[in-house]
């Protein structure tokens, strides 16, 4: 079932669970993510990051996610993640994405507001949801160095009031591309943002969050939790092990299908932590 981001997070952020959002890069890992969500009966968000868009293209990424969503037994969102180019965002809307993120975290507050408002205006006309970011999560989505700017509660409140986005990504201690679960969440800041801005929050860089903290934050005002790096890691590690165990294997379809099982396993684990199982 293909749905919008707003449809899912509006319920989740006021409840004791969050919607898991997983980055896709290939058809096989997208299938594996949906399979895990169906087995757990959890809503899920499929996200195409800038690297996925470069690899697949906007139209193919949309086709993959929307085809899987329309045939899924659970609600699925097709989401454009971390787009900084308005042209890319508008092309994604035309291609059929049901949700887009405009990432203005490297812009001034006023310019971020101005461009986000434009994205929201266009998206509303097409029934598409919009996520934006205030503050800046450490490191870029591609793993490049970027200075972290923790989100100020008053800035989050003002930004939401001016833009009326459907979900707001905030920086509270995570970083993109973390290989170890060593992120230190500033829970006091989270509570202050919660009190200031009545909007579904989004946590980026969640692969680096310890399991117990992931469960804790999912019960706060976070409607969407982004997870990407850990899926890439387990996917590649499983491929490496399969080839080591079966050096004569020549069938790439069998290789990718077997490796995708690691993605499904991790998806189910993260869903259990976010308490979204059985919410579909």
Give a structural overview.
The protein is an alpha/beta fold and 280 residues long. Helix content is 50%, strand content 16%. The protein is built from eleven helices and nine strands. It is globular and about 60 Å long. The chain starts with a strand and ends in a 6-residue tail after the last helix.
Question: In a few lines, what is going on in this structure?
Answer:
The protein is an alpha/beta fold and 280 residues long.
Total E-strand runs:
9
Strand arrangement, major sheet = 2-3-4-5-6-7-8-9
Mean pLDDT: 93
Secondary-structure-derived class: alpha/beta
Rg value: 18 Å
Question: Which residue ranges are poorly predicted, with pLDDT under 50 across at least 5 consecutive positions?
Answer: none
Overall morphology: globular
The SSE order reads EHEHEHHEHEHEHEHEHEHH
- How many helices does DSSP assign? 11
Portion of residues in helices?
40-55%
First-last Cα distance: 10 Å
Question: Major sheet, described briefly?
Answer: 8 strands, parallel, barrel
| Beta-strand percentage range | 15-25%
Topology:
Blueprint: E1 2-3, H1 5-12, E2 19-24, H2 27-40, E3 44-48, H3 50-56, H4 58-70, E4 76-83, H5 86-95, E5 99-102, H6 109-126, E6 129-134, H7 153-163, E7 167-170, H8 187-196, E8 201-203, H9 211-218, E9 222-227, H10 229-245, H11 252-274
Parallel strand pairs: 1-4, 2-3, 2-9, 3-4, 4-5, 5-6, 6-7, 7-8, 8-9
């Amino acid at each position: 079932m293909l749905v919008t981001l707003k449809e899912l997070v509006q319920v989740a952020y006021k409840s004791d669970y969050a919607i898991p959002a997983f980055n896709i890069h290939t058809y096989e890992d997208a299938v594996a993510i949906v399979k895990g969500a169906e087995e757990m009966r959890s809503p899920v968000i499929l996200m195409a990051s800038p690297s996925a868009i470069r690899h697949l293209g906007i139209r193919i990424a949309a086709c993959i996610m929307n085809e899987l969503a329309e045939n899924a037994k659970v609600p699925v969102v097709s989401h454009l993640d971390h787009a900084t180019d308005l042209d890319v965002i508008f092309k994604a809307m035309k291609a059929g994405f049901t949700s887009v993120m405009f990432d203005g975290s490297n812009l001034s507050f006023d310019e971020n507001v101005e461009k986000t408002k434009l994205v929201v205006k266009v998206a509303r006309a097409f029934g598409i949801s919009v996520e934006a970011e205030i503050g800046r999560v450490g490191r870029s989505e591609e793993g490049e160095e970027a200075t972290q700017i923790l989100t100020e509660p008053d800035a989050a409140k003002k930004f939401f009031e001016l833009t009326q986005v459907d979900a707001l990504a905030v920086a509270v201690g995570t970083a993109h591309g973390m290989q170890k679960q060593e992120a230190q969440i500033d829970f006091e800041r989270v509570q202050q943002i919660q009190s200031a801005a009545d909007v579904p929050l989004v946590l980026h860089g969640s692969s680096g969050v310890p399991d117990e903290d992931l469960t804790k934050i999912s019960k706060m005002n976070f409607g969407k939790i982004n997870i990407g790096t850990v899926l890439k890691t387990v996917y590649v590690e499983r491929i490496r092990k399969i080839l080591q165990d079966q050096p004569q294997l020549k069938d790439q379809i069998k290789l990718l299908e077997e490796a995708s099982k690691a993605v499904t396993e991790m998806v189910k684990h993260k869903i259990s932590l976010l308490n979204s199982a059985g919410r579909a």
